[in-house]
Design a protein that fits this description.
This protein has 271 residues and is of the alpha+beta class. It has helices at residues 16-19, 21-27, 57-65, 93-103, 133-139, 141-154, 156-162, 212-222, 227-234, 238-252, 257-267, and strands at residues 4-6, 38-45, 49-54, 83-86, 106-114, 118-126, 166-168, 188-189, 193-199, 204-210, 268-270. It has two domains: 4-189, 2-Layer Sandwich (Beta-Lactamase), CATH 3.30.450.80; 193-270, Winged helix-like DNA-binding domain superfamily/Winged helix DNA-binding domain (Arc Repressor Mutant, subunit A, Orthogonal Bundle), CATH 1.10.10. It contains eleven helices and eleven strands. Strands 1-7-3-2-6-5-4-8 form an eight-stranded mixed β-sheet, with helices on both faces.
């Protein structure tokens, strides 16, 4: 339980979610062109501790002080799945009132990514009046997925610090969101992602199916991350990264990693 802070002992002005807020705002700037004005990241570990980052430190502080975490994404990692959901399906008026009334946050979307030893939650939101953003989320999940990769790459130094400032919430039962029975019919499980490989010489397009993990590894490979760096960011072993890389090479019909990197850099796009 090293480096884990009980929620009642948090120094709000010095915790990472407060001191890093301006950096997260800068990283999340590309989202503003879509009308997304709020972004937050949470990582739930097997021991129940969480890492928190976001653009609105004041909201996070008040959220903790009012103990609204008791109804949100905490608890048992093993009971979560990779999925996405709209905030409007959340029956939690206290959180809605705090977000909208005090911080002009509303109409949000959650992407949940479950791994073996942890679960990550990516929160996107706009303003309470921007109801049309909900259609954007559903129709542009690929763009949000690209941003998630961009965020994890851009914020890796902050995320490394976050591991040393994990918060432990007191949680009782399985009533938290995405675990409760009310949510079972309101979430959409994540599917494998289709990748388009454009061959500009022959002017044709191929659809290459990749798993979520393969997609993450491919994007990190494209921007020059080593297997060791990618493994650290994804919390998996370098050997696992290499295995995913070999699978991607086979799917893209590349004989070497250098050939794969060149292919990704020249012809790779998500759609």
């Amino acid at each position: 339980m090293n480096n884990i802070i009980p929620v009642e002992k948090i120094n709000f002005s010095k915790h990472l979610f407060a001191t890093s807020a301006q950096d997260v705002i800068a990283i999340a700037k590309p989202l503003r062109k879509f009308g997304i004005t709020h972004f937050a990241y949470q990582k739930l570990h097997k021991d129940g501790s969480v890492e928190l980052l976001g653009t609105h430190a004041g909201f996070t502080e008040q959220f903790i002080k009012e103990k609204l975490y008791q109804n949100t994404f905490v608890g048992d990692v093993d009971k979560y799945i990779s999925c996405y959901a709209l905030w409007r399906d959340i029956n939690c008026p206290e959180i809605t009132a705090l977000a909208g009334g005090g911080f002009n946050i509303g109409n949000g979307f959650i992407i949940t990514k479950r791994s073996e030893n942890f679960c990550e939650f990516f929160y996107f939101a706009s303003t309470p009046e921007n109801h049309q953003i909900n259609s954007f989320y559903i129709n542009n999940i690929d763009s949000l997925e690209k941003f998630i990769i961009f965020f994890k790459e851009s914020a890796k130094s902050i995320l490394n610090i976050g591991k040393q400032q994990r918060i432990l919430y007191p949680v009782h039962g399985d009533t938290t969101l995405l675990i409760s029975h009310d949510w079972k019919n309101k979430i959409t499980p994540m599917k494998s992602t289709e990748i388009k490989l454009s061959n500009y010489i022959e002017n044709e397009s191929l659809s290459i199916p990749l798993t979520d993990r393969e997609l993450e590894c491919a994007l990190f490979l494209k921007v020059g991350s080593s297997a060791k760096e990618t493994a650290k960011l994804l919390d998996i072993s370098p050997r696992t990264v290499e295995k995913h890389t070999d699978n991607i090479k086979e799917k893209f019909k590349c004989k070497t990693k250098l050939q794969l990197i060149a292919t990704l850099q020249n012809h790779f796009m998500t759609s």
